[in-house]
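## retry 2 of 3
previous attempt timed out at serialization; input unchanged, resubmitting
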Amino acid sequence: MGMILKHPSDRGGSRSKPFERLAENASRFTSSASFFGICLILVAVAVALHVIGLPITWLVFVGEAMSAVTLLLVALLKNSELRAERAVERKLDAIAAVLLEGQEGGDTGQAHQKLRSILGNEEVS
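## retry succeeded, writing output
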């Protein structure tokens, strides 16, 4: 149960898991013009089904299918959003550490190295 409640980036390992890859790909696809076009077509089909007067069972089926897709997309996109948010937080923390060490006149090597590592990891992903 504890694993479920952890932030996606805190679940361990640097290797991308299948769900994370799926969520990332879904995020890229759903932000594309192609996906918007598909959505427009689906809405047009739903409206057309109403206009031509298909039986209510078909209309309910189309509505439930669209609801199911929406629910899945919310789950996938939320996962991507959380991982992106955590990456930004890590970068900001590292930048703040470098700035703080620079102001205090301390050894900036460790903070600089951590910042380089974080920025390097983001370029690889």
